[in-house]
Amino acid sequence: MMQATIKSVRGPDGRHDPVMAILDVDPAYDEGHQAEGEPSIASGVPSQVGSGVATTSDGVMLAVRSRLLTACLSRVAFLWDVRATIDRASGALRDLNVLPPLVRLDGLGSLTVSPRKSSGTLPQAPPGGFWGKARAAAAKSKEGGNSSSSAPAPYSRVVPSMSYDPHRHLFTWALPADAPAAAVGHRADYELESLSPNSPQARKEQEDRLFFDKWVTENGGFVKVWDFSLVDALISSMGPPSSSPRPPPKMPPAAVMKLPTLAASAASPQSVIAGLPYAPITAASLACACLSNDGSKLLVLAAPLPGAVDTIDNGTAGAAQSSSSESPVKNQRKKPGGGKVAKPKVMYVNCTPCHSVSLAGGAMSPFARGSAVAASQLSPDFVAVATDHGVAVAHLADGESWSSKLDSLDDDQRSGDFVGTTGTSNKDDSSTLICPSNIPAGPIHTIISIGGVGNRPGILFVENHTVYSSRLGIIRTSNDQKQSLVEKVDLPDPVVLCKLKLRRSRVPWKTIGSTRMANFVQSLQPMNPPPQLISSPSGRYLCLYWRCEKKIEILHAGSLLARETNPGAGTANASDGLGQRVTPYIESGSNILSFAWVGDDDNFAILRQRADPSQTESKGLNSASSPDKGKRDQPQVELFKLAEVKVDAVELAAGASVAAATTVRLGTLTVRGGDRFVPNALFGGPALCVGCLSPSGQSNNVGGDEGIAYFYSRKTDAIEKHDERAVAYTTIGTSIPYPDLVAWDEYGQLCAISYGSRVAAYLSEESNFILLGSVRVAGSNSSEELPLISLKFIHGVLYCSTQSSVHVIFLGNLEDDNAVCELDSYTIATAGVPLHGTNNPDLSSPVPVVAALMRPHILAYHLGGLLVSTMCGLRLLPLSHPIIRIGTLLAANLIDRARKWILAIPTSEHDNLAHFLIRRGHVDLAINDLNGLSLESYIDLCMRYERTDELERLIDAHGSEVVHNISDWGRRGEADGGYSAYFAIGMYMLGKDRIGCAKELVTRATESGVSELLVDAMKLATFISIADQPGGNALMQDLTNAMDFNSNGQLALVNIVN
């Protein structure tokens, strides 16, 4: 441990206003250090202040940059830039520097006072004010105490309730319910022009103040949100740096969220947790977990962030923002006649209830009342609640569905399992027939085109009921620049492609007022998460699946891409480039429990349960045949195909606007198992996989309560006759346990199936489904088992992810049918620090990047890294470790490029690298390209894989050295002698009819004069004489001449033939 005093941060002047809290506010995607030649900070900020700390890293020194936030007693917070220089060789701290504060945040808004000259007194306030109420309460509660107005206020002595979201770069600050309007407003953060008395603007200003005073009443507290991604822009707007000191600019919050009265007051830091991301709501909103005012429930409240509201309000003008991947605040304006960026308006919005968990009953006492809550950004779904009857852990989310599981840490049977799937639900789910899987259906981003502008991949995403497309932002200037940590990928200038048909009129908020420095929004209901995007095998179609609402919408990708280059993008129709006017919307459906693409012809299957089986629609996905008798309440697997419109259609010739394709129903699939199992999930691919669970109350079935799954494919004669009907499908192979995920490679030959944290790889041939192997994907802790949420093959490499980590699995030799397929798993990025730390000099064991990732889903390669979709945007993970890079290149059959990385590996690591290459099936690379292999490893590889020519060349060129080094191999620890390595090598060469090489071994042993070698050489010469009698006899005579005789003149021929 190293300890050093950074700076006295009791205030900017270092003398007054003591610090009460310090937060690290580095984003999860920030590199944390600067590479060579990287700009030090945003323009306009001094690069060096104080000591001469280095701003860039080199081969000797590592420059590290971090940002800290300090909150003082006066509720003034400052954002600091901390620079450090570390010696790479010794790890010693060489220099540490704290720059002047970047910005100032007033936690109490306009009520915030400047740092006091004396830290023991409070600012004078009139009776009845915020501080006055606090003093009166303190004086009244103190028995026999002095009730003078100088008594400290209780709120001033409480650590501020602050939190930081590293995923979205948001900082939150909670205020209690009795905070006055002046503490909530931030009028003092703006430089407003004075208004003439009695002018219309002045009267409007007075009305706005009355409206604001009314808005802050009847609340359960407030949560202020700052967007730290705007800090650099605000600093740059202040003009060029000055040599004279100046106060930091005030930064207003992006939003102020009002908690409802049913929530407990936010006066205590333990009563509310703000900023935790939950899967059942979108990342474009901010969630708060807090206790109810009576302490009987744990509440989840949410409100939209400014970026979501701005997108909807500006949607008609074609403005598109991506709050999940960019800053939530986008309504920045340019000052007239200047280049400075104006401060954005503060959005005042109310929070709406999303979910609640009762703390009474179940695992806890029926009289339990909560007093404090705690949670981590790394595991936001689990919230610990302190009650008067012990500590409970609430599991709030299960995938994209809310959960009411509650576990007591006082229960010995559950104390070690509260993070698992066990728990007591406060809801009676015994009548529920279908148990939805907690595995999300797919990512919220997808790649829809390659090439285009700057040869950058096109990304499609859905936000706020609108489909957008964008080109990936360029992060690094060169692909050769080594990426060390996770990088954020921006989506610049997204284009509105279309409004979703099912959701055009559903906006869960409305604007109720606006002032010169604020906008007021009324939130009507929580924002649901965006849909999962499931691209068809051909890439021509895209399914949008809202899992929580059980709805889908299918779009035509070609029409969407045409809108990307069409000036009229976002209109009702768009040209596809062939003179046809087609709409991207194809079909929609409801009551969809699961969706999957089947085969290569853009056929798809849906698992649907009708609310009213007797009710049928007239067309599309909502039309269905009558279900079988006795199965009206069970889900049905229905097959459809997409038929594209013909070029010579009459409607197109007449200039009409039609859909790009129509859906054709193929029938209902007969699911194997009858009434014993109920379909629950679909998994797409060349063969359709249907997962089934046993009905509630039945546990004596073949599959038990865990369920089973079957693969379904068309019969051989149906394929020949091009029969695509559902009746042409039949089960193939035997049943498998109910899977969590199923993924296929692009050729339909490799299949990966996950069960919890274990992945099984299969090879699908014409008539066989061969298990290649399985591997357990471990987290940062080897005992940690987290279920996988994403699986994807990319050029022969299998990538997978948990809720907070990403892993790579390399498959073994697939060409040799007789060889065992070895699987190797490595962690690319994880939220937890590995037990062995991050400084591991062993190149054969890659160290994962420590980064906070929220439910990453694998997308594709990009700029030499791995592109993943998270709840909070796109992230690029590094694949720069030599082992990972070599494995990916070999899997893609890029041998020459992999050889360059192999040759760059230090010779000390060649033995470990050889084992990795051999497990991939590249024995020749290990033998021919690794010149740092030890002699033992080289000989072992040559003999094991029958590389006789290489071994013969080694003995011919370096016979004396080889014989000398192997002279004692196989002899140590042997009481009764035995075969030595020398004798085994010689017999191996004889068996391969390499008599000349065996003779060379005998000759070199004769020259060595080592007694043990002479005995082994004599045995070897005996066998040589069988194949070549003259040559063998001559060798035996030479050996006899080289041997020593004992005192009796006898030759010590011991163990010549064993």
Any key phrases for this structure?
1058 residues, alpha+beta, seven-stranded mixed beta sheet, five-stranded antiparallel beta sheet, 18 helices, globular, disordered N terminus
Structural class: alpha+beta
- Write down the overall mean pLDDT: 75
Radius of gyration: 35 Å
**Physical arrangement of strands within the biggest beta sheet:** 6-7-8-9-13-26-25
Number of helices: 18
Q: Give the CA-based shape.
A: globular
Helix fraction bin: 10-25%
Total strand segments: 53
Poorly predicted residue ranges:
1-6, 31-54, 116-154, 315-340, 411-437, 450-455, 477-481, 567-580, 613-618, 697-704, 1054-1058
Strand content: 25-35%
Q: Roughly how many Å apart are the termini?
A: 61 Å
Oligomer: single chain
The main sheet comes to: 7 strands, mixed
In short:
The chain is α+β, with helices and mostly antiparallel strands and about 1050 residues long. The chain contains 18 helices and 53 strands. The strands form twelve sheets. It has a seven-stranded mixed β-sheet with strand order 6-7-8-9-13-26-25, with no helix packed on it. Strands 1, 2, 3, 4 and 5 form a five-stranded antiparallel β-sheet that branches.
